[in-house]
Amino acid sequence: MRSLLTDMLQGQLAAISDGTLNRRLYRAIRQGILEGVLRAGSRLPATRDLAQQLAISRNTVSTAYDQLQAEGYISTRAGSGTFVTAHLPDGAMTTVKPPPPTAAQQRALALSARGTALLHSAGASPHQWGAFMPGVPDVAGFPHAVWRRIQARVIKRIAPHALTYSPLGGSPALRQALVDYLRIARSVICDPEQIVITEGTHQAIDLLAKMLCNPGDRVWVEEPSYWGIRNVLAVNGVILTPVTVDDAGLNPPPLRKTMRAPKLIFVTPSHQYPTGAVMSLARRQRLLALAQEQGSWVVEDDYDSEFRFSGNPIPALQSLTPQAPVIYIGTFSKTLYPGLRISYMVLPQSLAASVSRAHAELYRGGHWQTQQTLAAFIREGHYASHIRRMRLLYGKRRTLLTQLVLHWLGPEALAPDSNAGLHLILALTANTDDVRLAEEAARQGIHVRPLSSYYLRARRRRGLLLGYACVDEDGIQPAFLTLLRCIARHYPALLRQPLPPPLVDLE
């Protein structure tokens, strides 16, 4: 079988015209090593195999290998093969550095103003797992065996059309499964044609901003709110107006005559992110009335409503009023796993056809097999069973973390919330630098997010978001003690009692 290495060497041999064939092969392999195409430790083909692939004699390959080994570029391990050495020999030729870019090239390579602004406010972390990463479920608890069994069944019956782009809106089977599930679980009443399957909430927001907003339009966002949504909106050229959130959720301000009505209003009413507040019924009714009066669209992000640990489920905002001007967004990133990359929008009838067609035009829907597998997963009851199982598990972890906070820091350190979701807020005093604490904790392997980074205005609460879903019970206490040591180094007055000394590894 031909390899990429063979193709590369053939190209190099054609470009090197002088010298014997074994010398040309030696130079081609050596150049590949020096340029990093053949990395340290990579295995070279056996002489017989390479000779067959290049249609040259084995002696030619052996001679080239012998020269490379003599100069220290490759080494042979008995019974294992021939490998590129870890360190280049002294005096080896290095690759020629390209000349510095000209002024014109630098201008051409410069990012746009919105690209630069996006990176300046970016909050995506290179770490997406472990204590206490907020917003991440326990992906280890996912029923992989059940999923694989359904997936094998779907693939066995695969039709040719399932291997091309998906139809408008996504898999009909998944949209119907969502209609049935949302009616029972979230009181959302809709038809399959109102649902558009997207690759994550960010894509859904990006599409809505493009379809419903012109550059310069005003958009209301919660204060505080999820930085990812704000960045997607900002890069589309809209003007963000932060609207205060309190214990009753978003508090819509009265519109003055001189104020421009918002085109979109983004809310997380069932479990506000990040504070955990639940929007009161009075606020919900006021918000819907304002949206209908001003011609605004309310975008309801129902990102983790399945994980409520006490009380009755809270109906979606979309279900309160017939023909409500609400676009409902849900995701499987929190209930199953983020890498699945499946979210969905429930659109009003007046928007559904246009947005569905625009989604196909801009993003070209696909992942038919995954969507069909998920549809069966929901339809056969596995999804509801998984939610019930994870709700019990997360409830235990939440209780354990809550007890640790109360024991070491006292009740004032627990920000009030709705006893739901996948994280707690560790409340800190106003003079605390939560960004600095988060950075130091990250150096200790503990990943938290500073509450202050979720605000747009200068007046910000201080705290740390502690995600408990992706930490098993045995790991919560040691991880929390590590975080407490970071706090104790800078703000010892926050602790109610001295910390125990860290365990010493005697091995």
From TrEMBL:
InterPro entries: Aminotransferase_I/II_large (IPR004839), HTH_trans_reg/aminotransferase (IPR051446), PyrdxlP-dep_Trfase (IPR015424), PyrdxlP-dep_Trfase_major (IPR015421), Tscrpt_reg_HTH_GntR (IPR000524), WH-like_DNA-bd_sf (IPR036388), WH_DNA-bd_sf (IPR036390). SMART domains: HTH_GNTR. One of its GO terms (molecular function) is DNA binding. The keyword Transcription applies. Keywords: DNA-binding, Pyridoxal phosphate, Transcription, Transcription regulation. The keyword DNA-binding applies. Pfam families: Aminotran_1_2, GntR. It comes from the Bacteria. Residues 19-87 form the HTH gntR-type domain. In the C-terminal section; belongs to the class-I pyridoxal-phosphate-dependent aminotransferase family. This is GntR family transcriptional regulator.
